Amino acid sequence: MILSAVSGVLFGHRKGWWYSIWNKLQFFWSTDVRELKKQTGELENKLNRVRDAFGEDNNLWLRQPIIRPERYDARIRRSIPILLIANLKGGVGKTTIAANLAAYFETKRNERVLAIDIDHQGSLSSMLLPEPLNRQERAGRSVRALLEGSKDGYSTFEAISESCPVRDSKRDSRVVDCDDPFADLETQLALKWLIGDIIGDIRYNFARVLHSDEIQRNFQRVIIDAPPRITTGFINALCASTHLVVPFVLDRLSAERVGQSLERIRRMKGQLFPHLELAGVVGTMKGNRTASLRDAERESIAEAKRAVSRSWGYGDFVLEQALIPRTQAIADAAGVRIVYPQATEIFDPLGDEIFRRVPGCTPLRPVARALRGNGDASRFADSPVARL
Can you list the domains of the chain with their CATH numbers? Predict the structure, then answer.
């Protein structure tokens, strides 16, 4: 009788202890299975997003949908010049041209320039930052905020306001510096965007900032130094820039690569940045500083013209009268400092031609002063960029 009672408690069909335990185990097991199925489904969806991002041309940056910022077309039409110095071939003088053009536009054209370094090697930063900052480790906080957007209450505009003045600047031109950690951020953002962990279109993060009233009213020109590879920052620069400048070394191989670089950019242009114009293709490392050209240099210019016409279209794009010579002064300054204005005879022809093709906008009043007496003034008067 006692044994029967104990058995009933332990193994009873409806209310026994064993039956209760069994039900709990079944519940936990089914819960784990449901959660596992849910996680598996989410993982499959993320993998499908990555697969779908690579279309027929295997270009993940053409992933749909493309969500441009509000009033994107109108803002870029009235934007200050935003020059992207780029070539997918390295060692062609991009950084040297970007740094000395920044100095040219400030010195000769009296423009306040915002120089942005998006190459994690940080060569432009080293050339434009004052001593000893150019030799110190850099966190790249401003460029990270520019690419990543506002985070933890730290706005992008605050980041730009905290950027460092360009060395020896008389107009308080600024440089947004870059260093190695930026490459990791680019990779992380691209992966999160592909798998759907980021809401919004990261391709236009630069555009949202550089086309804003704060930047447009406080600078007269932006110059961006791009890396020799398609990265998250490079795509952002393309989507934000108004004009493209492509340097190339005066040799046959480099001239051919001009066409390849422009072709890759052109394939994305129609969908992502239809407004982008080619300002010029600049030959660098000319063999001597006389007007005469060697046969190989003449042939490289001819090849560059053919490459540009095939990939971009016909036009007067190769700047034959603004070639950059190979000099010891430029070689010594590379990655360390700029040679302008000491070398005006080298960079003035290029700067003059770029200015003729892409003239600066009439300098606008600072935000706080421009909106004085306006109902919106209080919103901007105390902003970090208004205090620049």
Answer: 74-363 (3.40.50.300)
